[in-house]
Amino acid sequence: MAPKPTKNETPPSNPPGMFAGMVVFLVPHGVQSRRFQIWKQKLAQMGATIEERLTKRVTHIFAMNPDSLLQQIDGERLSRFKGRVLLYQWIVDSLSSGEKVSEDMYDLKMESEEEYEAEKSKPVKAESVSSGDDDEQSNGKKMKSSAGSPPASNESSLLSKDSYNPPDLNKNITEIFGKLVNIYRALGDDRRSFSYYKAIAVIEKLPFKIQNVEQVKHLPSIGKSMQDHIQEIVTTGKLSKLEHFEKDEKVRTISLFGEVWGIGPATALKLYEKGHRTLDDLKNEDSLTNAQKVGLKYFDDIRQRIPRKEVEEMEILLKKAGEEILPGVVIVCGGSFRRGKASCGDLDVIITYPDGNSHKGFLPKYVKHLKDMKFLREDLVFSTHSEEGTDSGVDTYFGLCTYPGSELRHRIDIKVYPRDIYAFGLIAWTGNDVLNRRLRLLADSKGFRLDDTGLFPATQAAGGKKGAKASASLKFNEEKEVFDFLGFPWLEPHERNL
């Protein structure tokens, strides 16, 4: 249920033919009768044709949430429907802005666990919520639940292309839910973990501060249990369920071990079951890989953030070193540095070469040069694919580096992309993860799979479900072209701290 607009707001003018050409079927379930009649009347007054049943003429179905939609229309009929299925919020926001807003972020669809599993494998940035993938590369990146943003108006609307507002005014809720995502995943309860994950995706893009659960009770993925949690958080500022978990020795230990680079939830659980309880306990654990041992040794170093001034100087060093090996090479420091943050958790370095060919074989020479300079100190992951053309031709180095004159270790990730997929790498490794998640889900809603190596048409699996990504990506030279194709508002790097 949307919150009431403030009394001193001046409502925008609504053009008489604003909804001309739309043939609309309205699902009444879950909507107050008076509000339903007002929306119906407004649509008709402004040019829309209202159908009392779902006919072949219908271009748009509106519903309050997935449950109310399925009470009226069965899944088989929905699968045959060729038009758009939107949240009622689209009508509210269009009337509020005085023009039709973009439909893309109002699509009402049932999220699948396939989306969640695909999401877990993406390169997302790291600050508070573990990605949960139990391998060295994916453990190196963490999924942040949210970031702060300036206040927005109290007019309820979901994020759209034409009325964009920086989200997460509800960090108090999403941070708690993010911790529960990690905890349940670490405990092997993927279903509960997925439920909180879906709720975060809905809550983090609301441009109003949740003050009462009535404001969100009809939103998708916010069921009775989530409503109770939200009510407790907005009332007390905390959640008893999380406090219970945080007092539990098993949960505390698994969470601690999961903070070590290279140790994911499954490994953390095994270490706990072996009787380990502290990081000191792990120092004599023979089963740890070399990379995990490095992560353990420099645990405290890696957790320290890097001042922006130091990153600026290291970027100059990285560019100069690259020019000495391959003049004209393009080297960019991404992540929170590219987004303009005052400090960074690590260095994300994205590299390409304009001719689309000379990047091949560059990374081994570059890494050797940086080691000779005593800049790169310890290796974590080193894989090259550009010359043999495997793994999309992307070369990868993860390791530890030091600021000149210091012995403090910092995490550094270096990715070398072929020029024709560089834009995708730049988007993924700039972040933030909230934006990356939105772009991937938006791509999925349009029948594509988006990752750091391209935008791929999704193949069809058995039963008409979306399957794996196709082998060939669409081609875009610039980041903005990807945003434009997906119908998402263009954001400069410093605007991506969602």
From TrEMBL:
Its EC number is 2.7.7.7. The keyword Transferase applies. Residues 14-108 form the BRCT domain. Its cofactor is Mn(2+). PROSITE patterns: BRCT (PS50172), DNA_POLYMERASE_X (PS00522). One of its GO terms (cellular component) is nucleus. The keyword DNA damage applies. Keywords: DNA damage, DNA repair, DNA replication, DNA synthesis, DNA-binding, DNA-directed DNA polymerase, Lyase, Manganese, Metal-binding, Nucleotidyltransferase, Nucleus, Transferase. Residues 146-163 have a biased composition (Polar residues). It is found in: Nucleus. GO terms for molecular function: DNA binding; DNA-directed DNA polymerase activity; lyase activity; metal ion binding. It comes from the Eukaryota. DNA polymerase that functions in several pathways of DNA repair. Involved in base excision repair (BER) responsible for repair of lesions that give rise to abasic (AP) sites in DNA. Also contributes to DNA double-strand break repair by non-homologous end joining and homologous recombination. Has both template-dependent and template-independent (terminal transferase) DNA polymerase activities. Has also a 5'-deoxyribose-5-phosphate lyase (dRP lyase) activity. This is DNA polymerase. It comes from Ziziphus jujuba.
